[in-house]
Design a protein that fits this description.
By secondary structure, the protein is of the alpha+beta class. Helices cover 31% and strands 32% of the residues. The strands form four sheets. It has an eight-stranded mixed sheet, sandwiched between helices. Strands 10-9-22-23-13-14-15-21 form an eight-stranded mixed sheet. Strands 16-17-18-19-20 form a five-stranded antiparallel sheet. Helix 1 packs parallel to helix 2 and helix 2 packs parallel to helix 4. The chain is elongated. It starts with 14 loop residues before the first strand and ends in a 5-residue tail after the last strand.
């Protein structure tokens, strides 16, 4: 437990650092009496010099061995500058601990070295700002310090004379290591891509099987992505749109013997069988021009454990992902509290991953309830119903043009309609001869 502060008499809690602690070290060194003890196996200029520049007579313990300097883990120049600034340097054989300690007021223990790399990597340290615990750390390291060896200017000169051949060898070895790492990374990436491809193929087979069992339209309409030039007398712009074959309409379908008319210029969910992509298409009688990747249903709130959330949906249009849908939960003031990766097709929603955002300030108990709800059946049903209900955007012409979703100009698409939650969903597939 934290010790009492020697002045206030209050319990002082330790402070934890999940990143660089260099700023706190610098502050502690500036306040400490001469003789701050530092244990850092590796030392490099920018950090070691800036941290210790504000102190006097620090006792710096490190590893003074050829491989540390030849590999670049430590810098001879740094040691020379620290010595010139009045700090005493020691070689401490077998040192691995990273410790700062002034027995009167401060101690830190952690993973960060006095190096630039130590400020950038994933480091963890704990610091104490009282008297009892720093004194205890001081007492614990005293047996180690009995083994230390003072680093003299002659030792530094000898080291400089010896490390050049080793530095050359380390450069060759490092280059070989970098090359091997790249080869390893490439092998891992290829294997992961192949595994991802197999997973996605399995999901797409399940999607096609499920769509084949759905109640679907009698009609199947062949459509083509076409381009139209718009000339205003000065400039030309181009519109890419999906057009049906002559005599067919995108708004008239027959399902189970009943005429199903899609509302003109409303948005309907559309899914592509080949890759599982989903989008919300703006349907007109003889064209589909605009496709949106997502929507935010601010009026469809759900209450969980006393908190209100609305839904946002975003289609994932990339084949490098295991998901084809990103679901977001929004607070009433618009903040996104979590992102949910999922695989969706009409009749099925599988949650793949749940990620809490920095905006989420929920308690662990509330997160647990959200987690259970998100991975439950009620969540899947609610999402699928909301996704499939037709709607109208306030900005009717919002979205990507048809070629961004269906394919480049000239692409042919077979369209049909399936019934999902009493709403029509468009399904697109490529003709077998394309």
């Amino acid at each position: 437990m934290p010790a009492k502060g020697k002045q206030s008499g209050q319990l002082l809690a330790p402070k934890f650092f999940a990143k660089s602690i260099a700023h706190t070290w610098r502050s502690a060194v500036s306040r400490a009496s001469p003789g701050m003890v530092v244990l850092s196996p590796y030392l490099t200029s920018a950090i070691a010099e800036s941290v210790l520049a504000v102190g006097t007579g620090c006792e710096v313990h490190t590893l003074f061995e050829v491989d540390q300097f030849a590999s670049g883990a430590s810098s001879i120049k740094t040691l020379k500058r620290l010595a010139a600034n009045g700090h005493r340097l020691y070689h401490l054989p077998g040192l691995h601990a990273k410790v700062f300690v002034d027995p009167a007021s401060f101690a830190s223990i952690g993973s960060q070295n006095l190096t630039m790399a130590g400020t950038k990597r994933k480091e963890f340290s704990v610091a104490y700002f009282d008297s009892a615990l720093p004194q205890h750390v001081w007492d614990l390291i005293q047996p180690w310090l009995s083994e230390r060896i003072l680093i003299t200017s002659e030792m530094i000169a000898d080291m400089e004379a010896c490390i050049n051949p080793a530095m050359t060898a380390f450069k060759v070895a490092r280059a070989a290591g970098v090359k091997a790492q790249k080869e390893y990374d490439l092998r891992v990436r290829r294997r992961e891509e192949e595994e991802r491809r197999r997973r996605r193929e399995g999901k797409l087979r399940a999607l096609r099987d499920a769509l084949g069992q759905k109640v679907k339209s009698k009609e199947t309409t062949l459509a083509t992505v076409r381009e139209r030039e718009n000339w205003d007398g000065i400039f030309s712009t181009y519109t890419r749109t999906l057009k049906p074959e002559p005599g067919r309409s995108f708004t008239d379908w027959t399902i189970n013997g009943n005429i199903e008319r899609l509302s003109r210029l409303q948005r309907y969910l559309c899914i592509l069988e080949e890759d599982g992509r989903i989008g919300w298409v703006r349907v007109a009688d003889y064209r589909i021009t605009f496709v949106n990747t997502g929507l935010h249903l601010s009026g469809e709130n759900i209450a969980i454990d006393g908190e209100s959330y609305s839904f946002g949906f975003e289609g994932v249009w990339t084949e490098v992902s295991d998901s084809n849908l990103l679901i977001q939960l929004h607070t009433d003031d618009g903040l996104i509290v979590c992102k949910i990766s999922a695989w969706f097709y009409p009749g099925s929603l599988t949650v793949l991953n749940l990620e809490w955002t920095k905006n989420c300030r929920a308690t662990l108990q509330h997160k647990a309830k959200l987690h259970d709800w998100i991975y439950g059946e009620l969540f899947a049903r609610r999402v699928m119903r909301l996704m499939t209900e037709p709607f109208t955007y306030k900005k009717g012409l919002a979205g990507y043009q048809a070629d961004q979703f269906f394919g480049p100009v000239g692409t042919k698409v077979m369209l049909r309609v399936v019934a999902e939650h009493k709403w029509p969903v468009l399904v697109g597939s490529r003709p077998k001869d394309q």
